[in-house]
Design goal:
The structure holds two protein chains of two kinds.
Chain A lengths: L2 E4 L4 E4 L4 E3 L1 E4 L5 E7 L5 E7 L5 E4 L2 E4 L9 E3 L8 E8 L5 E3 L3 E6 L1
Parallel strand pairs in A: 2-12
Antiparallel strand pairs in A: 1-4, 3-9, 5-6, 5-10, 7-8, 8-9, 10-11, 10-12
Chain B lengths: L3 E3 L3 E4 L5 E3 L1 E3 L5 E8 L3 E8 L6 E2 L6 E7 L2 E6 L8 E8 L8 E2 L3 E5 L1
Parallel strand pairs in B: 2-12
Antiparallel strand pairs in B: 1-4, 3-9, 5-6, 5-10, 6-7, 8-9, 10-11, 10-12
The chains are: A mainly beta, B mainly beta.
């Protein structure tokens, strides 16, 4: 079946530090992969996506590469800001566009 | 700006009450979903719908029902609210095409006392 595993949080970083949030998946077929972000008190917003192997999704300085050989889609950012403090969810879409979400990783960036 | 609108941001209800959570989308999406979000458990799918008057159970449908009489509106119903249904409820929609992301509403934080 389909599932997503992402690293446990919470993660606390200093401003301008490098961020990696690990995400691995199990899937039948060829899913698309997504990262969503949830700011405090809000719903989830699409951050980036990749629809096939070796694709790189990017947005707002965040990047993630679809690695089929390692079944991974790790989220990275070179220099985090306080405003990046949020919960990040990795997800895959299977048949009929049904999504499977990871449990979320909370990130706090301190000045 | 496309939107998924949930009728209430915060709601407090008493145990045993019938509760309606409303969700409306203006993107003409075929698919709509209800999730609940709890600390440490992530998002869990309650119900979803691929078309008007169609509904499918998700992972945790017990104690909930849904209604989709119009394409743009998907209602979640708690038949008899209980304290273990205190949670954040998120509605989402998507087109029927594969590889499209979900658009989420801002959520309804429901407290059952």
């Amino acid at each position: 079946g389909n599932s997503v595993t992402q690293m446990e949080g919470p993660v606390t970083l200093s401003e301008e530090a490098f961020l990696t949030i690990n995400c691995t998946y199990t899937a039948t077929g060829y899913p698309s992969l997504f990262w969503y972000v949830q700011y405090p008190g809000e719903g989830l917003q699409l951050l980036l996506k990749a629809t096939k192997a070796d694709d790189k999704g990017s947005n707002k300085g965040f990047e993630a590469t679809y690695r089929k050989e390692t079944t991974s889609f790790h989220l990275e950012k070179g220099s985090v800001q306080v405003s990046d403090s949020a919960v990040y969810f990795c997800a895959l879409s299977g048949s009929f566009n049904q999504f499977y979400f990871g449990t979320g990783t909370s990130l706090t960036v301190i000045p | 700006d496309v939107k998924v609108t949930q009728s209430s941001r915060y709601l407090v209800k008493r145990t045993g009450e019938k509760v309606f959570l409303e969700c409306v989308q203006d993107m003409d999406h075929e698919n709509m979903f209800w999730y609940r979000q709890d600390p440490g458990l992530g998002l869990r799918l309650i119900y979803f719908s691929y078309d008007v008057k169609m509904k499918e159970k998700g992972d945790i449908p017990e104690g909930y029902s849904v209604s989709r009489e119009k394409k743009e509106r998907f209602s979640l119903i708690l038949e008899s609210a209980s304290t273990n249904q205190t949670s954040m409820y998120l509605c989402a929609s998507s087109p029927a095409r594969d590889n499209y992301g979900y658009t989420f509403g801002s959520g309804t934080r429901l407290t059952v006392v």
